[in-house]
Amino acid sequence: LRHFLSIEGLNRGLLTEILDTAESFAGVTEQSVKKVPLLRGKTIVNLFFEASTRTRTTFELAAKRLSADVLNININASSAVKGETLLDTLRNLEAMHIDMFVVRHTDSGTANFIASHVQPHVSVINAGDGRHSHPTQAMLDMFTIRREKGPDFGRLTVAIVGDIAHSRVARSQIHALNLLNVGDLRVVAPRTLIPAHVESLGVRVFHDLQEGLRDADVIIMLRLQRERMQGAMLPSEHEYYRLYGLTRERLTNAKPDVTVMHPGPINRGVEMDSQVADGPRSVILEQVTYGIATRMAVMSMAMHPVSSQENHG
Ligand code: CP
């Protein structure tokens, strides 16, 4: 592992190795001594061209707990606003002896573009690019599911509910769940929010929420991503909630011990009720916590490639 750009093209062994490594870091971060010296002397740049609360912060915390130096570039206060190109920005940061870029961008493919232009010793981690991919989110979600339900994904029914069409999170989750041999993978959404040919990714499509949730072990709710819906038929929030909002009553269609997840940010009263988001089946804040250990795992593996997995990503 040198770069970590998407889940596509990885294999089950590498995903399991990331989860196992994250498990060892979760043990570290849950104790009073939170730091390990693995990335001492390394410099990591958070390059976020799009808003973020959870991802940017947990990448920064993860880097600090690995003892790296971290720079957070405020793009709105950088020379990008004076017309400096992305490549010139990169070249100038590289001149400061950077070891890793963590990149979020509104355009799909930006992390791949950067990875193809950095110096050979520099790693690139994708922190979300357009509609394409959010691979560390998918990995922290797999980590959360494994913690909640154990390592046998084959016995699980997972329902991903909401705006599948515009969601980089859903794409990455679908690839990760397939690699981990999930038993029954469902997507639940109105027709306008399901991408064409999604069945080819090995999912079952439901348009009725109650049916889609029936006997589910895990429900992953998604936000309506209006910022990526240019020209699309937008459902009204009221209508969407009426048909697809997750309420306590609708949750009874799933298994009694169902795990409810959401990558955040939540739009309360649109995709889910506060009673569910803050309720006993929700692990939404645990997902955020596990993001630190999972990102520690990905960053440390990228900086210390293991020979058998070196070419992935
Ligand atoms: N889940 C997620 O990517 O959240 P942020 O946009 O806050 O980083």
TrEMBL record:
**Reactions accelerated catalytically:** carbamoyl phosphate + L-aspartate = N-carbamoyl-L-aspartate + phosphate + H(+)
User: Which BP terms from GO are recorded?
Assistant: 'de novo' pyrimidine nucleobase biosynthetic process; 'de novo' UMP biosynthetic process; amino acid metabolic process
> In which residues is carbamoyl phosphate bound?
54-55, 104, 134, 137, 264-265
Per UniProt, residues of the Aspartate/ornithine carbamoyltransferase carbamoyl-P binding domain are 2-146
Residues reported in the UniProt entry to bind L-aspartate: 82, 168, 223
Q: Does the keyword Nucleus apply?
A: no
Pfam families linked to this entry: OTCace (PF00185), OTCace_N (PF02729)
| Enzyme Commission identifier(s) | 2.1.3.2
**Keyword terms of this UniProt record:** Pyrimidine biosynthesis, Transferase
Which GO molecular function entries does the Swiss-Prot or TrEMBL record give? Answer: amino acid binding; aspartate carbamoyltransferase activity
- Specify the superkingdom: Bacteria
| Record pathway | Pyrimidine metabolism; UMP biosynthesis via de novo pathway; (S)-dihydroorotate from bicarbonate: step 2/3
Q: Which GO terms describe its cellular component?
A: cytosol
Q: Where is the Aspartate/ornithine carbamoyltransferase Asp/Orn-binding domain?
A: 156-301
Gene3D superfamilies linked = Aspartate/ornithine carbamoyltransferase
SUPFAM superfamilies referenced in this protein's UniProt entry, alphabetically = Aspartate/ornithine carbamoyltransferase
Q: Which family does it belong to?
A: Belongs to the aspartate/ornithine carbamoyltransferase superfamily. ATCase family.
Q: What does this protein do?
A: Catalyzes the condensation of carbamoyl phosphate and aspartate to form carbamoyl aspartate and inorganic phosphate, the committed step in the de novo pyrimidine nucleotide biosynthesis pathway.
Q: Assembly state and interactors?
A: Heterododecamer (2C3:3R2) of six catalytic PyrB chains organized as two trimers (C3), and six regulatory PyrI chains organized as three dimers (R2).
Official protein name in the record:
Aspartate carbamoyltransferase
Native organism is Thiogranum longum
